[in-house]
Automatic annotation (TrEMBL):
Protein name as catalogued: Ceramidase domain-containing protein
BP-aspect Gene Ontology terms: ceramide metabolic process
Cofactors required: Zn(2+)
A Pfam family reported for this protein in Swiss-Prot or TrEMBL: Ceramidase
Organism: Spirosoma foliorum
């Protein structure tokens, strides 16, 4: 993808996200906390898990932890556009494996958007169902990234179009099933396991195509995730906590995990590109 085209997609994603910010602000201004009355409150709300003050009278109970999910939305819109551009160029000579599988990139972008709305729903309402959707969105992004990693590690296996369709549909089904699976296995074990699987795939693929992969992008993905976990931990432990601050540890977690996930995606999608980002 030429750099000017990529920049155009980034700018377009920015304005779409700006529009979504306006919509969210309008909703928060027009509605109040009574919208969530009658819904089961999450355990997170009961134990006051996060530092940010819970404005139960407001539509967005945790405003900063809600608005920060626009980071996922922005990258989701961007990746969906990249997928569409790949689809339009179908049949042209490919420079990497993921470019020839636009459905997988599209699902990646959709999962980003899904998490953006899901996590916003949770932090706005602090409800049990919101928390479930939030975690499912998190698993969705991670599962798709792991599948992208496996797809590249198995580079000798030729994927026909029907196989690609089955692969994508199976992923969607698996993400839905994780609504149940997540209740059976603690997230403290399941999510780190999936992240480890992704990192292993990145490492293997780097050594498979050392000259075509950016080790710095792969390392950035890991470093950003480690820093994100640190900020989340400090936020939960209420260390350096200011409940009314515009800067919240969990909001930073949203931003850094979004960046980490994009780095993982970029490691594969923009491999060997001078115009990569």
């Amino acid at each position: 993808m030429p750099t000017p085209v990529l920049y155009k997609l980034v700018v377009r994603s920015f304005f779409v996200t700006l529009g979504m910010l306006a919509v969210w602000w309008g909703l928060d201004s027009f509605f109040n906390g009574s919208v969530w009355d009658g819904m089961v409150v999450s355990k997170s709300a009961l134990v006051v898990e996060y530092c940010e003050f819970n404005h139960v009278d407001k539509f967005f109970h945790q405003p900063m932890n809600t608005y920060s999910n626009l980071a996922y939305f922005f990258f989701g819109v961007l990746i969906v556009q990249i997928a569409y551009d790949d689809y339009k160029n179908d049949g042209l000579k490919r420079q990497n494996r993921l470019e020839s599988f636009p459905m997988l990139s599209a699902l990646m972008g959709i999962c980003f958007i899904y998490l953006g709305f899901g996590s916003a729903f949770f932090h706005a309402s602090l409800t049990y169902i919101g928390q479930r959707v939030d975690m499912n969105g998190t698993y969705g992004i991670t599962l798709v990234l792991v599948s992208i990693g496996l797809y590249h590690v198995l580079y000798k296996v030729r994927f026909t179009q029907p196989v690609k369709t089955i692969w994508t549909v199976s992923l969607v089904i698996l993400i839905i099933l994780f609504l149940k699976i997540a209740l059976l296995i603690p997230s403290s074990k399941l999510l780190p396991g999936l992240i480890l699987a992704l990192l292993v795939c990145i490492a293997i693929n780097y050594f498979q195509f050392r000259k075509e992969r950016s080790g710095l992008v792969g390392i950035a993905s890991l470093v950003l995730m480690v820093i994100a976990v640190r900020f989340r931990t400090l936020d939960v432990q209420k260390i350096g906590c200011d409940p009314h601050s515009l800067i919240q540890g969990h909001s930073i977690w949203h931003l850094l995990t979004a960046l980490s996930s994009v780095c993982s995606y970029s490691f594969f999608r923009f491999a060997g590109r001078k115009s990569s980002f």
